[in-house]
Amino acid sequence: MPTRPLFPTMFYDAAIDAPDLLADLHDSCLSLAAEDAAGRRWSRENGYRGYTSYASLDDLPLRDPAFADLKRHLDRHVAAFARDVGMDLAGKRLRLDSLWVNVMKSGGTHSGHLHPHSTVSGTFYVAVPPGSGALKLEDPRLPMMMAAPQRDGTFVYMEPHPGTVFLWESWLRHEVMPSAAKDARISISFNYRW
Hints:
alpha+beta
């Protein structure tokens, strides 16, 4: 066959099967949303529909044993993803750089973005009520397609479930689709760097 794929974009979709951890994280996320005044203020001032600890708390694995346990799980998944995509880490490991909570209310969304200064980014889903919305991924070639006709697969929508962990290379543009759920979608996003 004369046509072959080059430079594939890899995406990691796995489950962390730990019901007790999921329950602990659910409670911890809601506690943070209730107690973190700085995070609530940042969310309100920046039009974030719900709560995020993105700009307020940077030590969750040290602050709460549930987040430390999650980090241990994530470290293994990120190491597996790095191997799968063929990263030459020169004997080093990717390390967690940041981790934050998202409690998104109905109507909440997060527009298209990427994660500069990181190597691998991802999200772990704690609560995904019906209608929560998918993670939308964009073909990284899109800005260079200029006069190209429409093609299938320019956008891919990944539907999470409680316990799902998604990983991708941090340069991959993505967005959180609007939630139509009655209850909050709870997730924990993170970045790893080399």
